[in-house]
Amino acid sequence: MKLNWGTAVVIAFILFISFIMYFVIAMNTDKSLDHDLVNDNYYKQELEYQNDINKEKNAKTLASKLTWEKTPEGMQIHFPKELDYKTIKGQVFLYRPSNKQLDFNTTILLSNHTLLIPDNRLLDGRWNLKIDWSYNNNNYMFKDQIQY
Asked: Name one Pfam family in it (predicted).
């Protein structure tokens, strides 16, 4: 059977459109290609960004800095020794960029200057650590990208 050039062009267009449609459908249905937003309420978070900057500046004025370390029991967060640990209040947020289901936050409840986050809550890999805390009506924030 002999094809003229008009029929060949139509067949080429149909094949090209089919090829494009296949990739559009494959990309929309493949769950391994889903990427969550960093935060569901990112507009609200953007409005509060200046407050976060002020809190980070306050944290930099402290004589000793907040630190963390990985131990066999889990992640230990060390608050400055010059502060009275009984009046430190706040939240610790751990965000896992690769999996939204692993994100969690915990309230800061201290019995000494160290907060322990158990090892069973943390998988090895990259985490975004955000500690939002207050002491004597002053607000502080510590942010870090950590490799646990």
From this structure: FixH
This prediction's pTM: 0.67
Q: For the chain, what percentages of helix, strand and coil (3-state, to nearest 5) are there? A: 35, 30, 30
Residue 142: count other Cβ atoms within 10 Å of its Cβ. 21
Instruction: State both tokens at 49.
Output: 């960004």
**Residue 77 burial class via C-beta count within 10 angstroms: exposed 0-12, middle 13-18, buried 19 and up:** buried
Q: What is the amino acid identity at position 96?
A: R
* Tens digit of each residue's pLDDT (9 = 90 or more) over 75-131: 999 998 888 888 999 999 999 888 778 888 999 888 888 999 888 888 888 889 999
| Ordered strands of the 126-135 beta sheet | 104-107, 89-95, 126-135, 138-147
